[in-house]
Amino acid sequence: MEKVRKVVIIGSGPAGYTAAIYACRAGLNPVLVTGNQLGGQLTTTPEIENWPGRNDNPDGISLMQSLQKHATDLGTEFIYESVEKAKLKGTEKVLTLSGGNEIRAKSIIICTGASVRYLGLESEEQYKGHGVSACATCDGFFFRNKDVAVVGGGSAAFVEALYLAGLCNKVYLIHRRDSFRAENALVKRLTELSKTGKVEFILNANVDSIIGDGNKVTGIRVVTTTGLCTVDVEGVFVAIGHNANTQVFEGQLELYSDGVIKTGFTTQTSTSVKGVFAAGDCADRVYKQAITSAGSGCMAALDAEHYLQELS
Prior knowledge:
By secondary structure, the protein is an alpha/beta fold.
């Protein structure tokens, strides 16, 4: 029978890697199940300007690779699969992996992050991969010297728009309000670009539908305060937020209505089940920053260490 591990970490973003680093230092011999996206959603970010000590603006992939190497060098065991089923109640937790094997642990740290949220339009679904995307760094190259639209008003939308402005002929930023939730520094940079005509803001606007010729996107139809209008673009990048990747834990843990894991039961990262801790975007409804995810990964590892000490 598979031996019972001290701690299993689920997820390979900033929270997961940091939890692994601290768990290794505590002598817990952690196992990290990476999930489907090695390095998490930060690997789609082209430039990170606010990671402490890295004023060279690293890209997300290189930053996550350095965190993974740190965790590896300290002795983390990696399993390159995803968790398909979880039994978290009791002192022995059981995870069923995508390859069919089970892994047992005394404690679990959930760092499964979040996935991009789409608009939910039928036309959007029709043109996914044919002009509709949620990742500028993944797909921006295909729209070089073309006109594109970014939908959203948060920091993620501004990062996408700034990246695309370096590739595309023109970027329209479409937002349902006339104010932004993005960081002021990002708003300032994109506003400066708008003065050159490279970027145009379409505010107080809701997306009605994605227009296409059956094969590719040709425009986007939006409803504004003055009525319905069509913007001619060949690409639409959706950046309206994320959904927590917690579906596998439904019925096992207490979740908020939006799927985010409830924490703070006994410690800051503790969940409704003893021995199960959560960190990063899957348990964050407020900050959603890479550095806060890493910090919460540290806290979760320390909480797991103290929990295991109490068991022994």
